[in-house]
Please model this.
Amino acid sequence: MAEKLTIAVLGAGNGAHMAAAETSLMGHAVRLWDFAQFDSVMKPVRDAGGIKVDVKIDHYAGGKGQHFAPIALVTTDIKAAVDGADVVMPVMPAQYHERLLADLAPHLKGGQILLLNPGGVGGALVAKRALDAAGVKGVKLAQPSDLLYGGRISGSGAANVTGKKKSAGLGVFPATDGKDVLARLAAIYPEYRLATNVIEAGMGGPGMAVHPLPMLMNAVNIEKNGPYTCDGYDITPAVASVIEAMDAERCAVLQALGLKAVPAKDILTAFYGATGKDFYETVHNVPLYKNQKTPADFQDRYVTEEVPTQLFPSAELGRVLGVPTPVFDATITLCGAANRTDYRASGWSLAKLGLQGLDRDGLKTYLETGRR
Model:
């Protein structure tokens, strides 16, 4: 290994366990932090000195098999977790980023990489505003198009790893820092490829296609029988048609900004190697989507995270760019009604992203240079 990094993984959920374990197995010094309310989840890791992973795939450090990944520090002290870390990597649902950043920002230092893994649509921009408010300069901001891992915590201080994406776009803010940040992160995630900017990366994952709409259109079955086992998120041809309509809106927003717009079908091929003649066939050919459990109810992150931090900012960008987004808008409204929550009020508005008042050219300049 060319360089040993110190990595602070912030969060103690499924993705955080898998990210902390793999980066440790690569030989890096890894710390694990979460809010004090989740200390009971971290206690088994602290007591054991690490995380046990049962890996079902070859594409993970150490390959298939059972491994023990040492964790150097397990703490609820955020200053101790991030002090001197090369990479600070929040791995938690994006609706908690604002709370996290309020605590985290004052403890970051110039030269560190803050890798929001994942970061929703514009999480790096939310982080930029928090850092500015704390008077912190020189932190490198990055977010991939999606979390690479598939799997779940399987017990106290243990996780099953069932999948890992073959590639993912990496957005950096400002985009002029992109090549430097990509090179530094290659030590842990060679799967990353450089996206044009953080919006292209944030709108470049499959989550907003395969999560909220299938939840909404299978609401009766989920509320009566969830969690139940299904394939391909229980997407039927009709559901797939609606997803394709929303995906066309997503692509139109990206194209209006002059960004690369990859259809959801092709994203699944790039991430998982699955192919098919259309989205419906492709989503049912993704191995990771076989025999999966649906969420138990509508409080799942598929709705509570992805609607306010992915669908809503995407629709907001469409509004500024003159791109109609009726399927986005309907999904936001109906998911909010189902959960009796105003996701437009709580979600990532253009103001929260620091993009208010910018037209198309202003958006492109700010995302590229960090200057308005």
The chain has a mean pLDDT of 97. Residues 8 and 31 are 5 Å apart (CA to CA). The chain has two domains: 6-202, 207-369. The domain at 207-369 is CATH 1.10.1040.10 (N-(1-d-carboxylethyl)-l-norvaline Dehydrogenase; domain 2).
